[in-house]
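Colleagues,

For the teaching module next term, I've prepared a clean inverse folding example: a structure given as tokens, and then the sequence designed for it. I'd like students to try predicting residues themselves before seeing the answer, so please don't circulate the second half yet.
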């Protein structure tokens, strides 16, 4: 019997049976999670302020706790970062996942409690392996190494007993030492902060090993894999790692990257499995390789609620638990977790494809954004960057839109901005440089991806002819009224249409 089969029998088979409860006991599992969260929350300042000890069930929970954005919880989280106990979750929280910022801040700091580590994030990782092995009984993943690509962390407010950094780095730092036997590279290299150095070292270490699985964000991972091919002189990863089986990916949409992966991994039996492990929690995994939808994980320390997107900004939006959702509706997701997030609006939007079991696809974000490479550029970042560039160069902007140019075979990618100027800058390169630098200043994730041009290259600006955006809206019957130009988008559909019109002779419409 192979090592993988033994590992499955010892650690994963039982969990696979428990996952079947998602079909038979979904609502009961969420009821149990809510009761657990309420009981634990009673011992916190937040719980006392919101009368947790009076709650009889979900209705009381929803009545007394408001839906929160990061801004509403920021003050309490900062107190936790300074070492205060029993604020949003019992005890002392030592880890904080650094995520992209809000309107008012460059970064968010999401608490990651010990219970959250074990009962949300690590539990999700184990279930990913359990479902993969159940679907692939002849797998030999534990006969080799799992290449896990993560970020870095640093001391929280200078306190070496407390960490702040990428969620992946926090997970690597706290992982069971036994798991390190099966993973690569070692912790010292995995947690390097300089990605250019890290990429080189990971490639040199792993190209000599028997790598059977990959785990990470598609954009960052592709950059490492290109380096492996460069150093080995091979044309495909099949020649480097003949036993490579699966890429567990998440963080950003995999679709735009699939063709690039298929060019460098030619194995017909290569598997790709999507996961939804955000800084705020592990929410879903692809349990059926023939279905792109993910299974909503209902028996972790996460209680879910959902707001229909067309009501999100209304004065009294509908908020429902899983028992109230319908398939085909675009929802904003609200979570309460054992990391101390109470009715927290994550910012992601999902649509359910099934209710038995509860399966979903990620549809986007609640606001304009670009998150093609993990940069999570939001509209407020764009507006601040353009304002700085205009102020410094004397330029004036009428309209604009931006979208990503996805990675080519050399793992090169960039943001492309189509801008209609009322007054163009005298020096377009200077305008472009100022915009790029300001975006790095206001968004730490964009800054990280732009580091040394390793992942995200310098942005590109294309000048739109006069009246382009107005003509485009008019061609769609959307001129006037409440219709607006989509400023930021992960999709290139709008910008491609606009650029096609921009390259055609202007016509009266």
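(Answer key — instructors only)
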């Amino acid at each position: 019997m192979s090592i993988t089969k033994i590992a499955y029998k010892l650690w994963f088979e039982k969990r696979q049976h428990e996952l079947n409860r998602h079909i038979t006991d979904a609502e009961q599992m969420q009821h149990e999670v809510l009761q657990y969260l309420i009981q634990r929350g009673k011992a916190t300042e937040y719980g006392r302020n919101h009368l947790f000890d009076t709650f009889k069930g979900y209705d009381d929970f929803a009545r007394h706790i408001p839906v929160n954005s990061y801004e509403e919880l920021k003050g309490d989280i900062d107190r936790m970062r300074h070492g205060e106990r029993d604020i949003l979750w019992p005890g002392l929280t030592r880890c904080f996942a650094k995520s992209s910022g809000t309107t008012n801040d460059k970064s968010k700091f999401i608490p990651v409690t010990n219970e959250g580590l074990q009962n949300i994030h690590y539990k999700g990782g184990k279930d990913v392996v359990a479902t993969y092995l159940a679907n692939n009984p002849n797998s030999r993943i534990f006969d080799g190494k799992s290449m896990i690509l993560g970020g870095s962390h640093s001391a929280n407010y200078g306190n070496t007993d407390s960490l702040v950094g990428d969620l992946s780095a926090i997970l690597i730092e706290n992982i069971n030492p036994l798991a390190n036997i099966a993973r690569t590279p070692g912790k010292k290299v995995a947690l390097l902060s300089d990605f250019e150095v890290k990429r080189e070292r990971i490639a040199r270490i792993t190209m000599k090993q028997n790598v059977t699985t990959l785990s990470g964000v598609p954009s960052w991972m592709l950059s490492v894999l290109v380096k492996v091919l460069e150093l080995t002189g091979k044309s495909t990863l099949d020649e480097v790692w003949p036993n490579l089986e699966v890429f567990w990916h998440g963080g950003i949409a995999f679709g735009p990257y699939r063709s690039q992966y298929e060019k460098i991994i030619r194995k017909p039996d290569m598997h790709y499995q999507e996961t939804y492990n955000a800084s705020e929690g592990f929410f879903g995994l692809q349990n059926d390789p023939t279905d792109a939808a993910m299974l909503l994980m209902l028996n972790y320390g996460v209680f879910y609620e959902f707001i229909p997107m067309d009501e999100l900004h209304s004065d009294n939006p509908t908020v429902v638990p899983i028992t109230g959702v319908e398939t085909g509706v675009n929802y904003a997701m609200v979570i309460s977790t054992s990391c101390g997030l109470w009715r927290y609006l994550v910012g992601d939007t999902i649509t359910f494809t099934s209710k038995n079991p509860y399966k979903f696809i990620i549809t986007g974000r609640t606001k304009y954004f670009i998150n093609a490479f993990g940069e999570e550029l939001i509209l407020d970042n764009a507006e601040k960057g353009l304002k700085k560039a205009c102020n410094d160069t004397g330029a004036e902007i009428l309209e604009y839109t931006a979208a990503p140019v996805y990675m080519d075979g050399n793992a090169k990618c960039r943001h492309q901005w189509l801008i209609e100027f009322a007054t163009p800058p005298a020096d377009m390169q200077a305008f472009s440089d100022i915009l790029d630098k300001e975006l790095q200043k206001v968004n730490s994730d964009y800054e990280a991806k732009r580091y040394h041009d390793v992942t995200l290259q310098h942005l590109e600006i294309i000048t739109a002819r006069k009246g382009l955006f107005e003509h485009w809206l008019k061609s769609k019957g959307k001129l006037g009224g409440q219709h607006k130009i989509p400023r930021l988008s992960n999709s290139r559909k709008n910008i491609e249409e606009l650029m096609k019109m921009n390259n055609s002779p202007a016509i009266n419409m």
